[in-house]
Design a protein that fits this description.
The complex is a heterotrimer of chains A (314), B (517) and C (371).
Chain A (H helix, E strand, L loop, with lengths): L1 H10 L2 H26 L7 H19 L2 H25 L4 H24 L4 E3 L8 E2 L8 H7 L2 E2 H19 L1 H11 L1 H6 L4 H26 L3 E3 L6 H11 L4 H21 L5 H4 L2 H30 L1
Chain B lengths: L4 E11 L4 E11 L3 E6 L5 H8 L7 E6 L2 E2 L5 H7 L1 E4 L11 H6 L16 H15 L14 H14 L4 E5 L7 H16 L3 E6 L2 H7 L2 E6 L2 E7 L5 H9 L17 E11 L5 E11 L2 E6 L6 H8 L7 E6 L2 E2 L5 H6 L2 E4 L3 H5 L6 H6 L9 E2 L3 E2 L1 H14 L16 H12 L7 E5 L7 H16 L3 E5 L3 H7 L2 E6 L2 E6 L6 H7 L5 H7 L1
Parallel strand pairs in B: 3-8, 3-9, 6-7, 7-8, 13-20, 13-21, 16-19, 19-20
Antiparallel strand pairs in B: 1-2, 1-4, 4-5, 9-10, 11-12, 11-14, 14-15, 17-18, 21-22
Chain C lengths: L1 H7 L2 H30 L4 H13 L2 H26 L7 H18 L5 H30 L3 H21 L34 H18 L1 H11 L1 H6 L4 H28 L10 H11 L4 H24 L5 H44 L1
The chains are: A mainly alpha (314), B alpha/beta (517), C mainly alpha (371).
Chain lengths: 314, 517, 371
Amino acid sequence: MSEFLAAFFTVFNVMLFQNTLRTATPIVLAGLGGLFTDHAGIMNIGMDGMMLIGAFTAVMGTYYFQSAFMGIVLAIVVGVLLGLFFGLFVIKFKSDEFIIGVALNIFAGGITIFLLRTLTGVKGAFPLPKSLGLPTVSIPLLDKIPIINELFNNNSILVYICWLLVIICYLVVYKTPYGFRLRAAGEHPQALRSIGVSPDFIKYSASVICGILCCLAGAHLSLGYLTQFSENMSASRGFIAFACIIFGRSNPIKVFLAALLFGFFDALGLRLQNIIPANLTLIIPYAATIFVLVIAALQSKRKSKLSELKLNKV
Amino acid sequence: MSNDIAVNMKNITVRFVETLANDDISLSIKKGEIFAIVGENGAGKTTLMNVLAGQIQPTLGSVEILGSTVTTFSPTAAIKAGIGMVHQHFMLIDSFTVAQNIVLGHEPKKPAKFGIFFDNKAAVRFTEDLIREYGLEVPPNARVRDLGVGLQQRVEILKALALGSKVLILDEPTAVLTPSETDELFKIIRKLKEKGHTIIIITHKLYEVMEISDRVAVLRAGKLAGIEETKNLSESKLASMMVGHELSFESIPRDETVKTPVLDIKNLTVSNARGLIAINDLNLTINSGEIVGIAGVEGNGQSELAQAITGLRPALKGSIYLNGIEITKQSPEKIRKLGLAHIPEDRIKTGLSKQASIWENLLVGKQRRREFAWLKLHLRRDKISKYSKEVYNQFDVRGAGIHIPVGSLSGGNMQKIVVGREFSFENTRAYVISQPTRGLDIAAMQFIHKQIINKRNEGAAILLISADLDEIFMLSDRICTLFEGKITAEFDPKTASKEKVGLAMLTHSKEEVCENS
Amino acid sequence: MREFLNELFTKRYKYDFSYILSLSISILLALILGAVIMLILGYNPIEGYGALIKGAFGSPRGIGDTLAKTVTLAMTGLAMAVAAKAGMFNVGGEGQLFLGAMAAAIVGAELTGVSPIIAIPLCLLAAMAAGGAYASIPAVLKVRLGVNEVITTIMMNSIAIYLCVYLSNGPLKTTERGIASGTQAIDPEFKFTRLITSSTLTQSIFIAAVIALVVWYFMSKTAQGYEQRLTGQNYEFSRYSGFKTNRIAIISMIISGAICGLVGMFEVFGIHGRFIESISKEFYFDGMLVAMIMRYNPIGIVVISIFFAALKMGSTAMEMKVGISSELILVVQSIIIFFMAAENGISRILKEKAAIRKAKREYLAAKAGNV
């Protein structure tokens, strides 16, 4: 019994929740980006590739300028370009979103490895000195409170920016004129055009925001804790973010909560590695994604049934 | 002089790739008049108005709006010049409230907090002011998707007025309205005229033109056929101007047939896509050798009725029998096998695959037959080609052979493919036919009407659903009116008047009809 | 004959021709872009591409390897195409491939000593069943609950891969000494014979040829293929037509998964002789690219696979001889898609503009003629 308890506490402790916040951050960032394109009526499954390129440029920028700040700036610039690139195809050329998304992912996998090898001569992973990682922020008074301190203090700066972004995105989407136009562009672009607002412009802006946030997500992946770039390090997180958008119905707060849920499963997997073989625990977040999607689908199905029944009584 | 002119269009020509939509049309519309534009489907009415609203760039020609010449054709420029257009398909965001729709594009912002946030209170206030000014009652905080079409249309009108439009274009505004809603709309139009607005109304209903307009322009095949003061016109004169010659409908001979029940619908209840009841406890029997026409304002359950009978939408309650066999819970495949064919209301979305070739579209439903598929597997292309060509020729499809994609055909020819296919099942005795001639020119329409009556004469049981009351009267042996998912009355087209049927399309019970008549 | 010619010159074939033209231009441009990248990085592109061509076709071994790669590409491409034509996007072929390889390796090891004539077909079946069954899960979820199959199949890739890696390092790890990871070896009798010494081309090419023929026949000549095609084009129409849409979706995914499983088996029986963690290096994603470039046309996929296989195999030689990272070719491949999409989009926009101009010209000409 005590053995079991010991095992239990090696898994379920403060570290678990700390890891949750840490692993959720890139998914939150990408999810926030993707919900903009989703609201604008674009299915963006190229987010994973955008993250990967973001992770790569952040590391390279940091390496060449010897500054994490410049790494982030470079990632943002590349994010803007990626957003415009994606928008060019999907909006201007009216290409198939699925094909462009898949091609973007494959392109990202190829170009990052190719550039990594030719620019640094490294195969596999390219580590940077820890000192070049993102600065952590320590909030002065928080360190007096034990658990809260461990959870919410001394995180990398992007974590705090990410939390701030959740609120900002919520306000932008639901409380600003731009948000109204964004949602209108997705729901009925023709209506926007008829009142003299270009839906394409709104869609481009959504695509650019998505590019920036996905690249920031990637930057957090490569600079947040590990300070290294490794081949294919996005590991389908862009798709998990996509699932969060579906689950959270593109509402920033709900997407954030969904991402936390996946972060929790991811962290749980990490903590469980002491007990269960690593390759099995790695499955957890992916299986959880499918599970949650199924739950979401079942719920919406039940809802429509319920409304039918209610009306029947009337 | 030019001060009384609201809109002056000179030599407007719009040439699309395949068609000449507007051919050298010049007309001027006076300030403060109600100007009607009439014409058949495809006569170019909407195109002409889209030019005015900046949605389409004309190939040639110039436009003057309220004295200033239009240099760039864009919605923004048109709005600035004072044009507002209420499109046939509403340009509303369903998930937004009325007020949010009205202020979209010129949203009020909260002065506090750096002026970046949407000010919903100001939007509602703005909308309420607008409602008060024009007397168009709508609930400003209701979501658009919860409103009926009549109210949605008011929102569209308010939206245009909010943008400061002096010239208001209404594209087929009464197509989706009930007669009483139409009366309401006409009151609104007259009120707007009093306030000095110019109204342009597109329609093909002649009695409405006579009732509301000051002047009429008639378009025929892209050309201006004439402009007249309404008071100098009669309905029949208008009709002949529209068609170009005196209307002659050759009547298609009807045989007397033996009538036995084929399609029997009992207590049917069906919900729509949003889970609301669309068909409510409906009973209907269709006999062999008769056409039963369903008359009703669109959105009263017509689509759901057709879908439920053909197995595309589950029935919540009740049962449907085809030749005595219950088909209520059967798959569309089984229902087709049991002898029911279906011409769907939307040929492009439901009735065809545009990318597929004509033969592929004609084969549907027969692809597993022994004559066309060896061992139900290997497609016998020679036999299929032969059959496809037969249908192709029999139904007078005009195109470049059976191998081209259906998407390259015109609307009329596409519909001929659908009708040809659905009418070529040998053992089929029952047909559900929805909107068979929507958007077709008169030649194609008459051709399809003839095919439908021929089927009836062969003894088929036909349920005809159409938004076109004339079509219902022309084809049906019996007319049933559908209102809010119920059959409200039954008429004999030979004796009934359109007014009575129109009234029954709007009321709940037969008693009401009787009282009013 | 006349009929045939008529058919040949209808819009459909004109369309095919313009497609091939746009594809060729896109490939050419992408290769030029690749050359430019080489130049920028200080390599000689002629040397680079020279090494590539030599590597792919310069020796019997090179040709063998290229053909072997063609098999993998064509099979995975066809797998993608079968599902995509029916409107199902199977992005999970990699996972199905892993499970197929694992199933074949397990059965192959269990049946040690049994006659190959019995054992090999059983292993084939096991691989196809594993891949097909795994692919049916996202199909059922999509059909019953409307869960997006792109996401589920991607998630299931990771699940299958980690599961197989776990198995080959854990419970199913071989007892042989000196093998770091991998399952028990299959009976050497079962291994496919190599057709060219020291190349990876094995008898599997014959199985692949048969499968490709069957898939082509199925997709373009049968009633089932016809129903799948129409379902992929317009789902509403398919439902209206009385097709069994749910079954069509599930069957197409099972076929797709079964082919992927088969590719996994080829790797085990042709090359490694057991399941190893690195059984596939994202083979399926290469195949997806091929399928998308050819718009899911089975003949086109097989033909273009030869070209892409040559690029892939040649790129390894290029890396060794000239020092240009072979990943450049992956970049070039994905750029082909972007070029084609761009070409498509630009030509559509230009066509629209030209049509407007032409309409105006014609109208004015007609007018002038009348006057």
